[in-house]
Structures are given as C-alpha cells and as structure tokens.
Amino acid sequence: MKKIVLTGAAGRLGSYLREPLANMCETLISSDLVDDIGKLYDGEKYVRADLASLSDMNDLLADADMVVHFGAIGDEAPFDAILQSNIVGAYNVWEAAYQNGVRRVVYASSVHAVGMHKSNDGIGIDAPHRPDTYYGLAKCFAEDLASLYWDKRGVESVCMRIFSCAKVTNPRAVGTWLSYDDLIHLVERAITTPVTGFSVVYGISNNDRAPVDNTKATFLGYRPKDNAEQFAKEIYANSDPLDPNDLAHQCIGGPFATVELGNSGVASLNIVDDAKKT
C-alpha cells in the first residue's frame, strides 16, 4: 500500500497505531491539530490539519489508499463542540475520501453509539443505535454516513465500536477492555481484509465477560487474544459493591449512560494516560 492517512495521531490510541501503520505502507501521513508529534517513524510524515475544514481534508487525503480516522473529541462535550469536530469532521473525511478516490475509511466508532443497551442483553453488531450522549449520537451519525457513502458512492468503511481501550482500573473494564495489541490487530484486519463494504465490528478483547456478540464480524479475521479476566480478582477486591439499579452498571455505555448531556463521561473512568512515546 502506498499511502495511509491517520487522523488523531497525537491522541493516546493514535500513538499506538503510528508505528504499525507506518510498517504497512510506503508513506504514512499522521495528522492532528498539535504543532508537533515528536520523532517520526520511517516513512511517516506529519501534517497539521483541521477536521472541520473540508479543504484541509481534501489536501490530506490526496492520493491516499485508505484513511484511519481516529480524530475528533473523544468524550462527551457540549453539542456545538461535538457538531464541529465529530459530526462535520466525519462528513469532511468521507466526502474528501470520495472526492479523492480513497477506497476505505477505517473509523474509530464507539460503544457509545449503542451505550444505552443493557449489558446482559448480549447485543450483536446489528443492534439498533441507542446512543448515551451527544458523543454517542455523533458516532451514530458517522456510522450512518459510512453506510450511505458505501451504498451511494462506493466508499468502503469499517466502523470499529471501540470499548475500554485503556489500562483496566474498574469493574466495568473487566468485561469491556480492548488491549492495545488487540486494537492494532483490529485496525490491521480492517485494512487488509480484501472486501468490507460497510461493516461494523466491536473493538473489544477476548474477555470472558464481554457484553456483546462479535460473531457476525468474523469475516474480518479479527481474533483478539487478550482477556481482562486476569485483572478481575484484584479489581473486584478493591472496588465497592456495584448498585444493580444504577444505569451506569446496567448499560454497556457505563457512566456515559448517566452523565448529564454535555458533561464529561471520561472524568469518572480514571483512565491512565500511558500514551506511547516516540
């Protein structure tokens, strides 16, 4: 593959994707809003670009084979902020992909597109949208946009509904963990699978207590190896008993299911910032 574009390259998840993506193509264009992302890998170039600008996205995606879209606000926020970064930004990425003949968008969707479904429902990838926040609503928009651009314009997409891709620090993550190694494996499969059309897959590791069914996405060849059960004993021993009547413990969106619209859901998750350093 000649050229892959990665948006959100300065983010925590993007930091783990840069090196493996650089190894998959002749040129990796990493992009974000920061001025500098540090030392570059062989074949990697950094371009500062704004998702809210269609012109920026058109320039960024010129001659690209695929775009791995991890950019935008990664938390619940006021609607106007979500609108520009996550909704308009998604439109600009897909429209620029279409205008530049990019074959496929590999998209960091989220569990929060279906976050109000109950954990014990065991939903699959065909579950109806049930967002828990404006953030989740924007993911629903992007997934439907991806479906539309496949049906009407032939742009393939793999929408990865990412769960808890961070160090396991709370009881919910024992079921919802996505390890960095499994994240990389998932993105690689989303890129290398010959034909995807419009596809949805859950970004979750091989957890004993996973609250969703990924069976219908097996054609991607995604076979996660890590399992959060290794952390269960310690996590449960150090946590207070969970309230079964609390939607934050009932719903797969966790605390996003109860947070006030526009307020951070990440704030209560105790996420460790262990971004990969170059």
From TrEMBL:
Keywords: NAD, Oxidoreductase. Pfam families: Epimerase. One of its GO terms (molecular function) is oxidoreductase activity. Gene3D superfamilies: NAD(P)-binding Rossmann-like Domain (3.40.50.720). Residues 4-164 form the NAD-dependent epimerase/dehydratase domain. Belongs to the NAD(P)-dependent epimerase/dehydratase family. This is 3-beta hydroxysteroid dehydrogenase. It comes from Paramylibacter kogurei.
